[in-house]
Design brief:
The chain has one domain: Phage tail protein beta-alpha-beta fold (3-Layer(bab) Sandwich). It is 26% helix and 33% strand. By secondary structure, it is an alpha/beta fold.
Length: 219
Amino acid sequence: MSGSANRRAPVLLGLLLFLATCPHDLAGQLPAARKDRPIGYIRYDGDMAGLLAKLAPEFNVNIGLEVYPWRPTTQVKVELSDPTIADVLNAVVDSAPGYRWREAEGAFEVSPEGGGCPLLDTRIEDFQVSGVTQAEAVEQLMNLPEVRAGMSALNLRYEGRDGRPTKQGGEKFSMSVKGASLRQVLHQIAGRSGGRFWGFGRYGNQRDGEVVTLRTPDR
């Protein structure tokens, strides 16, 4: 696959979300707990990552996506009435053969059925950030010595995604995490920032070294 195709931004073909308004949402604040059925009807035909990035804050849950190295964008078609988050994720993987989803510690992950990249299981001894957005926190996380060592062992290198932060750059936050896996820290960053979503991708061939990118809602 060409480099230009790898860097091409996913295109959303269509998204219709009709939200069922609840009294506690009128002030524009989300409840702390997961919202089981905030959406009355959904019809979507487009990039899987775009859908999951939209739904994560609607359901008030953290969602991580790992894509196949040879398929950085995957089209899905979903049409559901009054769905739960499990209903939506079941529909997503039904529309994207080769993917599965799981729930772990209250967060959700969509990943290849054949297994994900072991880099995401790298143990992070100590991670601290202050006054950063989600994208900025991810940049600092991926430059930790243990993460860089893990990438080197797997013949990987990290590149930040192309593009400028959007106007909805995400809330600035501070956090401190010790003794967690890379994927666990990514979920915590997503939750603290309010973005609620992260996407992990690898591009290139293993012999020459693959490029790792991380997608966040504020890029």
